[in-house]
Specification:
The structure is a homodimer of 354-residue chains. The first copy, chain A, is an alpha/beta fold. Helix content of chain A is 43%, strand content 15%. Chain A has 3 domains: 62 residues, 434 Repressor (Amino-terminal Domain) (Orthogonal Bundle), CATH 1.10.260; 134 residues, Rossmann fold (3-Layer(aba) Sandwich); 136 residues, 3-Layer(aba) Sandwich (Rossmann fold), CATH 3.40.50. In chain A, helix 2 packs across helix 3 and helix 2 packs across helix 4. Chain B binds a DNA duplex (16 and 16 nucleotides) through helix 2, helix 3 and helix 5.
Chain lengths: 354, 354
DNA sequence: TTGTAGGCGTTATCAA
DNA sequence: TTGATAACGCCTACAA
C-alpha cells in the first residue's frame, strides 16, 4: 500500500475515493456504497468508512459522478434576467414542488448573449438532467434547436406569439394580448382618451409586442384615435423593465407637454418609475394622471398609491409548470398547453375622469 | 469503422468526441484541438471537423472536460437568498468585471439548509474553480471548513461580528454597527424619542444583530431610555426581510397602541411594508410617523414618500470584491479587508418633531 | 457483504 | 501536424 502517496495527496487536498478506500482498508466499491447509501453494506463498515471520510474531509467529485451516472434526479430552471422580481415567487414554488418530488434543482442564469436552448443542451449532457423549465425568454430562433433537447421541458411565462410555432411543446403562460386589452379597456371605460403607453422597443420580444397590440386594439374598440406620440419606448441604453427606465421615459413624456391623462406601463416596475417622475413634476397620481401597470408584483400593492395592475397568477403557474414537467417525465402526457387567466386589480393609482 | 454504431448513437443524441473523430476521419486528439482552439492544427482540418460537429449537433460533455482539466477560468458567486434585490446591482458588476478578465462565472444559489462553504468546496472540485465570492450569508460555524477551501475567496457584504474571526481571510463590507448608529442618531437628532425598530430575531444572523446594537447605542448616547416593547422582531414564519414581513410587524405595532413617533427598519423592504401598514391605519408618513430604512435599494428612492435610508455603495463594493479576488488569484496579496463607508440619505419619509 | 476491473467522455503526453 | 493511449474520479457489473 502506497501510504506516502496517500499522505501527499491529503496535503494538496485532492483526496479520491481510492485514498479513502486505502485509508479505511476496504475496496472502493465499499466506499461508494457508503457514500450513496446502498443497502448491501455492513452498517459497521459503513460507519467506519464515513468516519474516515469525515476525518479526512473527503468530498466526492461531482463531475466524475455525473460522467458516470446515466440519469440524475435533477431539474434545471433556466432564467434569463434572473434579477427580475417577477420570477421570485415562482422560484420559491419551484423549490418546494421539486423537493416534494424528491428531486433537486439548479437555478441557471442565462445571460443576454446566450441562447437558452444551447445552454440547456449543454446542461443536459453535463448534469444528466431529467427535465428543464425555461422561464421567460424568447424562442424566436430556437425552434430548430429545441428539437435536439432530449429531455422533457416546459416553457413558462413566455410570449404567446410563439405559441403557434410551439404547438408540439408544453407551455404555461397568460394571454398577454387579451390581458393587456383588458387593462386598456378598463382605462378607456374610466373616460381616459389620451392614454400613453410605455412598452418594449425590441420587436422580437413578443411579450412587449403583445401587450402593445392589446393596447392598440382596445383603443380602436373604444373609437379612440391611436396617437403615435403617446407610444413611449423603453430606453435601450438603460436596463429594460427597470424603474429607472420607466422614470426616464415618463420624464420625457411630461417634458414633451403632450396632453394625456393616463399612463399604461407594460410592467409594474415601469409604472412605479412613471409615478416617481409624475411626483417630481409636482403632479399627483391618480388626481392628475392615472397610472397602470402589469404583472402584479408585490411592490405594486405596497406602493403608494397602490398600482392598478394585471396580476398574473404566478404561484399557480409555477405549480402547473412543475406538474406538467413531471407528467412529461413520467410519460403521462405528450405535451400540454395551459393559458392562465390573469386578474385586473383595480387599486388606487387609477381614477375615473367623470 | 463501426459506422452503424455511430449512426445509432446519433439517433439517441449521445454523440461523443470519438464519433466525431470517426465521422470526420481523424483522431480524437485532432477533434479536441479543433474544439479548444489549439494552435497546432491545420486550419483546413479544423474547419472540416467543425463542420462535422455542426452538422451532427455535437456538444462536448462538460463533466468530462471538468474531470480532465486541471483548472478552468471560472469564478463562482455563491448567494444565499438569491432573490434579494440588494444583490442585483452587485451581480451586474460581477458579470462585467469578470468578463473583463476573460473569465466566466456561475451564479450559485445556496438555500437555507445548506452550508455555503460545503457547497463551495464541492463546486471547486466539480468545476475546477479559480475563485469564489460569498455574497451575504453567515459564517458562524464554517471557520473550520473555510480552511479546506483550496482556492482564493472573498466574503462580500457579510456581518462584521465575524470579522475578528476572519482576520486571515479577505472581505468587503460596511460597518453595520456604526451605520446603524448613524441612522438612529439622526432620528434622535430630529427629536424622536420613541423609536421602534424592526429587526432580525435570529441571533446568529449578525447583520441584524449589529444594526440592532447600533440602535441601542445611539439611544443610550442620546439619553433615551431603551424600551423593549419598541423592539419588533421579523416574523419567522414569513419570508425574512420581505415587505410583507415589515407590513405585518408594523400592523401589530400600531394595533398595540404603543406610543412611538418613528420606525427604524433594518432593511428598506421592511420599511416599505411599514409604510403600507401606516397608510392602511389612516396615518401619514412622515407627518404621523417617520420611517427609516437601511440598504439604499433603488426602491427606496422610487417609493412615495422616498425612504430615508443608509445607502451601501454596492457597486463599488462589488468592484472591490472582484479586484481583491483577482489579486488573490494572481498572488499579489495574501488577504485584504475593506470596510466601505455607507451614506445616510435623508429623504422624505422622516421629519423633525420640533 | 465485499472487491476487481472496465468504462463514462475528455484532455494531455508522447511518439510518429 | 497528427494520433494512440493513459489518466481524470467515480460507479457498477460481475465475481468471490
Amino acid at each position: 500500500m502506497d501510504k506516502s502517496k496517500v499522505k501527499e495527496r491529503t496535503i494538496v487536498e485532492r483526496l479520491t475515493i481510492i485514498d479513502i478506500a486505502k485509508l479505511s482498508g476496504v475496496g472502493v466499491t465499499t466506499v461508494s456504497r457508503a457514500i450513496n447509501n446502498h443497502p448491501d453494506i455492513n452498517e459497521e463498515t459503513k460507519a467506519m468508512v464515513m468516519r474516515v471520510i469525515k476525518e479526512n474531509h473527503y468530498v466526492p467529485n461531482n463531475s466524475a459522478r455525473n460522467l458516470k451516472r446515466s440519469a440524475s434526479r435533477t431539474i434545471a430552471i433556466l432564467i434569463r434576467g434572473i434579477t427580475n422580481p417577477f420570477f421570485n415567487p415562482m422560484i420559491n414554488v419551484f423549490e418546494k414542488e421539486i423537493q416534494n418530488k424528491k428531486y433537486s434543482f439548479i437555478l441557471h442564469r442565462v445571460d443576454e448573449n446566450q441562447n437558452e436552448v444551447e445552454v440547456a443542451i449543454e446542461l443536459v449532457k453535463e448534469k444528466r438532467l431529467r427535465g428543464i423549465v425555461f422561464l421567460g425568454g424568447t424562442f424566436s430562433h430556437s425552434r430548430e434547436k429545441l428539437k435536439q433537447l432530449t429531455v422533457p421541458f416546459v416553457l413558462s411565462t413566455i410570449g404567446m406569439t410563439e405559441l403557434s410555432e410551439l404547438k408540439e411543446h408544453s407551455y404555461v403562460t397568460v394571454d398577454d394580448y387579451m390581458e393587456s386589452y383588458k387593462m386598456v379597456d378598463y382605462l378607456c371605460g374610466l373616460g381616459h382618451k389620451r392614454i400613453a403607453i410605455i412598452t418594449d422597443p425590441r420587436a422580437d420580444v413578443n411579450i412587449g409586442k403583445l401587450r402593445y397590440e392589446g393596447y392598440k386594439k382596445a383603443l380602436e374598440d373604444h373609437g379612440i384615435e391611436f396617437d403615435e406620440q403617446l407610444v413611449r419606448w423603453m430606453k435601450e441604453d438603460v436596463e429594460s423593465y427597470s424603474m429607472i427606465n420607466g422614470y426616464k421615459v415618463t420624464k420625457e413624456l411630461l417634458d414633451s407637454q403632450l396632453e394625456f391623462t393616463a399612463v399604461y406601463a407594460i410592467a409594474d416596475s415601469l409604472a412605479i418609475g412613471a409615478c416617481k417622475a409624475i411626483f417630481e413634476a409636482g403632479k399627483r397620481v391618480p388626481e392628475d394622471y392615472s397610472v397602470a401597470g402589469y404583472d402584479g408584483l408585490d411592490m405594486s400593492f405596497y406602493y403608494n398609491p397602490s398600482i392598478t395592475t394585471i396580476k398574473q397568477p404566478v404561484e399557480e403557474m409555477a405549480e402547473e409548470t412543475i406538474k406538467i414537467l413531471f407528467d412529461l417525465i413520467h410519460k403521462k402526457i405528450k405535451h400540454e398547453h395551459k393559458i392562465f387567466p390573469a386578474e385586473l386589480l383595480v387599486r388606487e393609482s387609477t381614477k375615473s375622469l367623470s
